[in-house]
Structures are given as C-alpha cells and as structure tokens.
Amino acid sequence: SFLQGLADELARPPREARFDYDGETDTLVTLTPGQCGHWLDVGATVEQIAEACVSSKREIALPVHVVPPRVTRADLEALLPLSWISQGESSLRGSKRECLQNIRVAAARFHGLAVPPQTAFSFLDNLGLVTAANGYSESWVVYGDGTMRGPSGGVCQVSTACFRAAFWGGYPILERWPHAYRVGWCEANGSPVGLDAAVFSPLIYLPGTVESQ
Q1: How far apart are CA 213 and CA 199, in angstroms?
Q2: Do residues 93 and 38 lie in contact, with contact meaning Cβ atoms separated by under 8 Å?
Q3: Of 181, 210, 194, 19, which is closest to residue 113 (Cα–Cα)?
Q4: How far apart (Å, rounded) are the C-alpha atoms in residues 69 and 36?
Q5: Rounded distance, CA 174 to CA 135, Å?
Q6: What pTM value is reported for the model?
Q7: Coil, strand, or helix at residue 189?
Q8: CB-based burial label for 160 (10 Å; 0-12, 13-18, 19+)
Q9: Could you tell me which residues come within 8 angstroms of residue 23 by beta carbon, excluding any fewer than 6 positions away?
Q10: Which strand (E) or helix (H) includes residue 158?
Q11: DSSP code of 172?
Q12: HSE-up (13 A, CA, CB side) for residue 119
C-alpha cells in the first residue's frame, strides 16, 4: 500500500506536443513541446525489496518506466508534405457575443492537436470541463426539449464541425449524439439534416434526467 501511494505520487502521463503546419513553406511549427511521462512498476519494486531483505543490499533503484509522447515532431516530419483530407463547417451567422467567446475557447482546445494512428479520438476528453472558471460565458444551450442559460452555448458548433470533418473524411464514428431537436444553425448553408453532434461537459441534460457523460 505504501508503494502504491508512492506510485500514484510519481505517476505522470505524457504530454503530447502540438503543432501547426505552414503549407507554403512545408514546415512544422511547434506550438507546445511534448513531455515524457513516467510510472512506477509496483510489482517489480516489491520483488526488489524482497530480494534486498535477504541480502546485504540496502538500496534499490526504483523501476520507473518512461512513457514518450505518442506523436513526435519526427513522426510528422516523416509524413511531409501534409495533405488536406477533409473539413467540417458550422455556421456562426447570428451568434451572440457569449456564444462566439465559447466557440473560441472550445476550438483552442483542439488547435495543433495530432491524433496518433490506430487510436480512438474523443472530442469530450480533449474538450475538458466547460465551466466559467475555464473561460466560458453563459449563453443559450439545448436543455431537454427546450433551452436554458449555461456556460456551454456554442460548444456544440465546434463538436459539430469536428464530427463533420471526420464523417466526410471517411473515418469510423464510434459514438455520436444528436441534439434533442433540430437546430437551425445545424442546417445552415445547405448542410444536410442529421449531421450535428451534441456535447456537454461535465453533464448532459436529457428530458427528465441529468446524466454524467
């Protein structure tokens, strides 16, 4: 139990780097550098302690494993020049100032993000908590079969654009939830009906219920 507490204290997930791509010069720009993570192998530590107890050994080296970022600059540079696969759009026409603020904050969470191959990308996990403390403003949000004021108004336009990019790019969609009813901006500029993606963090509100998501 002591070692498990120590392992929890030492554990650090890797931080993925973020990159921008300059198509004119065919170069990558590092926005945020990556950082290795690490974790303590508790089982191996227990074995080393047990062996030390029956020997003259009084010190052991903790078996801490280094976890590199899943996508490195070298990985992306090996793919240059990068090509445009698909895009998703969402209409901002008529959006209020608070809604536009929330769109900017939510979109910034995904700027420069590189998704490793053969992995499932979660919009919700990368979005994080949508709260006033994280820079979101109160705006109108879908609540059951109506609307209410909340700090997430506009975020669904970001999730919808992301979903559409993945959909038109031909990527498999593992999970997607539509809004409780048809929303005008989802169908603006000739967008097909049914290509919206509702998201709410940390809770999603359904008629008569409040469920965590």
Answers
A1: 9
A2: no
A3: 19
A4: 6
A5: 29
A6: 0.77
A7: helix
A8: buried
A9: 81, 82
A10: helix 155-168
A11: -
A12: 9
Tokens (6 digits) for 67 = 């976890």
Tell me the C-alpha to C-alpha distance, in Å, between residue 31 and each of 19, 49, 107, 135: 5, 43, 15, 20
- Quick: pLDDT tens for 162-210: 999 999 999 999 999 888 777 777 777 777 788 888 887 765 444 443 3
Q: b/e per residue, 38-56, with b = 16+ CB within 10 A?
A: ebbebeebeebeeeeeeee
CA-nearest of 166, 143, 144, 167 to 153 is 143
Question: 9-65: per-residue pLDDT in tens?
Answer: 999 999 999 999 998 899 999 999 999 999 999 999 999 999 999 999 889 999 999
The encoded tokens of residue 89 equal 């759009």
Which amino acid makes up residue 17?
A
Specify the 3-state DSSP secondary structure of 167: helix
Give, in order, the Cα–Cα distances in Å from 119 to each of 115, 172, 182: 7, 11, 31
Measured torsion, CA atoms of residues 68, 73, 77, 80, in degrees rounded to the nearest 10:
110
Q: Taking Cα atoms as reference points, which of 154, 127, 134 lies closest to residue 142?
A: 154
> How many Å apart are CA 63 and CA 54, to the nearest integer?
19
